[in-house]
């Protein structure tokens, strides 16, 4: 196709430049014209720029010759393409045209699966692939002549159009169902990949498993897993008179972690208070530096220094001063909010201490 397109461009340039160029042949005199039926070239030419005229060439076959339609006529009308169309309707065949001639003309479009020829001058051709139908439509409008005879029974004008066939529709529906199944399978695999893994099943109660869980309850790192197993056993109804003592021991082990958890919470609260205090001190230092920067801007805005700056410098200093004051106010509000929260917490503690004193 690329070779055909390049040859077509060269031929068009020669048509514009050289005087001995034969426009009817599409080539220089003495050189055989390039046709879409030549070996190595597809029957359908590649897309041609809109400013270049489309000229169909004469196609020579073994038993017949195809003459192109008038390029000034509008292209042949076609019906709407059915989904999965692999079958074409071919009308305007010569009365003496045989199935062998039909194969000779259309086998260059692609592999032919079946030909259903009517007693009249038309037939249906089914190809192996859908793109071959587009190649066959390229021949619509061509005049066919058998051999060198000009008899009316040996000539005709081809009309190629899309045809509705049950086989094509059935194959297309099967393909669509297969694609839908593949898409559902792909989505299912993607959902399973993103779904979090299911928790492992809890083992059934036994004396051996009970001893293992009891040991895990004493270990801080394995406590969460073990207490979940204990909860499942109790909800299943594994507690009875024979196993009551074992369950009481495990519950007692779970209760021993209460003091540890309370101490951990107190330690985290202490760390949080220290972090708050550190943040408050850092924020205070930042606020002091912002005050110093704003003071520099205000000093530069006084008359004895302001008159020595240019207009552009004064504008920049004013913008910088405004930005620094806005940021300083934001930090100051944040620091005041922290202090108000501390005062409210202190007042709440005093109220609680007063209530405790009155109750005592």
Automatic annotation (TrEMBL):
One of its GO terms (cellular component) is external side of plasma membrane. Residues 251-285 form a coiled coil. Its main location: membrane. It is found in: Cell membrane; Secreted, Extracellular space. Residues 86-165 form the RRM domain. InterPro entries: ENOX, ENOX_RRM, Nucleotide-bd_a/b_plait_sf, RBD_domain_sf, RRM_dom. One of its GO terms (biological process) is ultradian rhythm. Its cofactor is Cu cation. Keywords: Biological rhythms, Cell membrane, Coiled coil, Copper, Electron transport, Membrane, NAD, Oxidoreductase, RNA-binding, Secreted, Transport. It comes from the Eukaryota. PANTHER family: ECTO-NOX DISULFIDE-THIOL EXCHANGER (PTHR16001), ECTO-NOX DISULFIDE-THIOL EXCHANGER 2 (PTHR16001:SF7). This is RRM domain-containing protein. It comes from Balaenoptera physalus (Fin whale).
């Amino acid at each position: 196709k690329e070779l055909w397109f390049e040859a077509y461009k060269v031929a068009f340039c020669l048509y514009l430049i050289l005087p001995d160029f034969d426009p009817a042949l599409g080539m220089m005199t003495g050189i055989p014209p390039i046709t879409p039926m030549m070996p190595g070239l597809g029957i359908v030419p590649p897309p041609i720029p809109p400013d270049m005229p489309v000229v169909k060439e004469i196609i020579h076959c073994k038993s017949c010759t195809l003459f192109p339609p008038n390029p000034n006529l509008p292209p042949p009308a076609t019906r709407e393409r059915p989904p999965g169309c692999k079958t074409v309707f071919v009308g305007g065949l010569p009365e003496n045209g045989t199935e062998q001639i039909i194969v000779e003309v259309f086998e260059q479009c692609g592999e032919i699966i079946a030909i259903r020829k009517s007693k009249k001058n038309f037939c249906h051709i089914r190809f192996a692939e859908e793109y071959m139908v587009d190649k066959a439509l390229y021949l619509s409008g061509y005049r066919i002549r058998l051999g060198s005879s000009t008899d009316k029974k040996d000539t005709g004008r081809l009309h190629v159009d899309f045809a509705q066939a049950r086989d094509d529709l059935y194959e297309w529906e099967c393909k669509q169902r297969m694609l839908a199944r593949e898409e559902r399978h792909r989505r299912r695999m993607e959902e399973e990949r993103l779904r979090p893994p299911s928790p492992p099943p809890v083992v059934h109660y036994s004396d051996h498993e009970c001893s293992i869980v009891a040991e895990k309850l004493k270990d801080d790192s394995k406590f969460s897993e073990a207490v979940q197993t204990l909860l499942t056993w109790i909800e299943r109804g594994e507690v009875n008179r024979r196993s009551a003592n074992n369950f009481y021991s495990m519950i007692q082990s779970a209760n021993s972690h209460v003091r540890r958890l309370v101490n951990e919470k107190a330690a985290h609260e202490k760390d949080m208070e220290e972090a708050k205090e550190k943040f408050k001190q850092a924020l205070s230092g930042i606020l002091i530096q912002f005050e110093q920067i704003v003071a520099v801007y205000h000093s530069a805005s006084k008359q004895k220094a302001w008159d020595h700056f240019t207009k552009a410098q004064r504008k920049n200093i004013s913008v910088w001063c405004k930005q620094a004051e806005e940021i300083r106010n934001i930090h100051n509000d944040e620091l005041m909010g922290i202090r108000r929260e501390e005062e409210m917490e202190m007042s709440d503690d005093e109220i609680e201490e007063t209530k405790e004193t009155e109750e005592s």
